[in-house]
Amino acid sequence: MTIGKGSLNKSIFCTLVKVTRLNRVQKRINVGILIFDDVEVLDFAGPYEVFSIAESTASQKLFNVFTIAACKNPIFARNGLQVIPTFTFNDDINIDILVVPGGYGAETIQYKNEKLINWIIEKDKNTIITASVCTGAIILAETKLLDNKKATTHWMDLERLRKDYPLIDVVDQKFVEAGKIVTSGGISAGINMSLYIIQKLFGIEISDNTAKRMDYDI
């Protein structure tokens, strides 16, 4: 299975150096997944599954995965699924990989949530990777982190992203890497993106084993 093509670019090399340093002081990489009301279920659950089951060749967990929301109240995801967030914006938690999902809540309410936008901007200062799934790209667009970069989103929202955020080079792809920012297309594309991130950080064998364990075909 080949998820991405080409050699490691400069940004990924720098990321790998950071990961090496990170692993000297902690056993796992922290993956924080943002959740909010009307978040698309697979947008957050797909990456959660990928990162949480990824293991080294020595069968050691590679990631510590958790959810984060504005407060501890239950989150009502799309179609009524209730989720209790692990942490809130008020918790002092280190996030190495931040995942911003999409869904109806993202594209209609959260992209104008000033508290959420400012929280992402602050956390991005210390991440090794900041990623979005589906219309989570619209939230990232509001932070200006996508300005002058290539990005993608759900195919139904590509034109909206182009029109509303002219500084973004919007492309129709499964996922796009732009420095330490990675954006993916709609819903299930977040799984592909997460496997790609694992491949870049730990190699194709680890990403292949993770996909095989999920019985997921690339």
Summarize the model shown.
Helix content is 39%, strand content 18%. It has helices at 10-25, 41-53, 104-108, 114-124, 136-143, 158-164, 189-202, 204-214, and strands at residues 29-34, 63-69, 75-76, 82-83, 87-88, 97-100, 129-132, 150-151, 169-170, 175-178, 181-184.
Question: How are the SSEs ordered, and which strands pair?
Answer:
Elements: H1 10-25, E1 29-34, H2 41-53, E2 63-69, E3 75-76, E4 82-83, E5 87-88, E6 97-100, H3 104-108, H4 114-124, E7 129-132, H5 136-143, E8 150-151, H6 158-164, E9 169-170, E10 175-178, E11 181-184, H7 189-202, H8 204-214
Parallel strand pairs: 1-2, 1-6, 2-5, 6-7, 7-11, 8-9
Antiparallel strand pairs: 3-4, 10-11
Helix pairs in contact: 2-7, 4-5, 7-8
Question: Could you characterize what this model shows?
Answer:
With 218 residues, the chain is of the alpha/beta class. Helix content is 39%, strand content 18%. The chain contains eight helices and eleven strands. The strands form three sheets. The protein has a seven-stranded mixed β-sheet with strand order 5-2-1-6-7-11-10, sandwiched between helices. A two-stranded antiparallel sheet has the order 3-4. Strands 8-9 form a two-stranded parallel ribbon. α2 packs parallel to α7 (189-202), α4 (114-124) packs across α5 (136-143) and α7 (189-202) runs antiparallel to α8. The relative contact order is 0.18.
